[in-house]
Write a structure and sequence with these properties.
The protein has 240 residues and is of the alpha+beta class. The strands form three sheets. Strands 1, 2, 3, 4, 7, 10, 11, 12, 13, 14 and 15 form an eleven-stranded mixed sheet that branches. A two-stranded antiparallel ribbon has the order 5-6. The N and C termini lie far apart (40 Å). The protein has two domains: 9-67 and 203-238, Pseudouridine synthase, CATH 3.30.2350.10; 70-201, Pseudouridine synthase. The longest helix is centred in the N-terminal third of the chain and has 12 residues, at 21-32. The chain is built from seven helices and 15 strands.
């Protein structure tokens, strides 16, 4: 297929776990044979859910969509701490979990709502002096990271059973759910790590409307699901 320079818009994809966001973009860019493509916010390999992928001149809108709020559902395993704050990392400690109730967790979550400051984890794609933090972390190098303000609009417990807390989080761009798990574990005194993470929404875009990744080789389905550049411009113009 010749290069489709006229493809310009956004595709909503439901990314599965165990694949990088970059790989999803690479697969679609190759299939569509477009020169420019990029996503609007990395999902960790462990994470699944909504990935917004822009093509052609729509990539100029990337920063605008990256700044939109996100909604996640996640499960935290209490009593276990890893070096990455999720199950992609190495376990560094395991503690017994006792005297913790769902009511206690709900009360503690109120302390995380509103404007808070987070220190980005070493295992992240954030760059310091031109180098990605996870590249340094894999070499055993830890560098100083500046904390940054994020906004947690909702942080609610969905259920708690057998040391697993299932939560729903509505947060601003730049929030690390893994850090929320770590910080909650620290406050509880037993440690915690992310077991599962799924992005449900990015602003008004919902994963329910996304193309399942298993259909990412179906050109007809992809083309029928691309939101045009003009529609995206109209969408941004209507938003506050």
């Amino acid at each position: 297929m010749s290069r489709c320079n006229n493809i310009s818009g956004m595709l909503l994809v439901d990314k599965p776990s165990n694949i990088t966001s970059f790989k999803v973009v690479k697969i679609l860019r190759k299939l569509l044979n477009v020169k420019k493509a990029g996503h609007c916010g990395t999902l960790d390999p462990l994470a699944s859910g909504l990935l917004l992928i822009l093509f052609g001149k729509a990539t100029k809108l990337q920063d605008k969509f990256m700044k939109k709020d996100k909604v996640y559902t996640s499960s935290f395993l209490l009593g276990t701490v890893t070096d990455t704050y999720d199950f992609d990392g190495k376990i560094v400690s395991v503690k017994e979990v006792s005297n913790i109730s769902i009511e206690k967790i709900k009360n503690l979550l109120n302390n995380f709502k509103g404007e808070i400051y987070q220190t980005p984890p070493m295992y992240s794609a954030l760059k310091v002096n031109g180098q990605k933090l996870y590249t340094l972390a894999r070499k055993g190098i830890e560098v100083s990271r500046n904390s940054r303000k994020v906004i947690i609009r909702e942080f609610d417990v969905l259920s708690f059973d057998k040391n697993i807390v299932n939560v729903k989080i509505h947060c601003s761009s730049g929030t690390y759910v893994r850090c929320l798990a770590k910080d909650l574990g620290d406050v509880l005194g037993c440690g915690a790590t992310v077991k599962t993470l799924r992005r449900e929404k990015i602003h008004n875009f919902d994963v329910k409307d996304a193309l399942p990744f298993e259909n990412s080789n179906d050109l007809d389905k992809i083309m029928s699901n691309i939101i045009s550049y003009e529609t995206l411009i109209g969408f941004l113009d209507r938003q506050p």
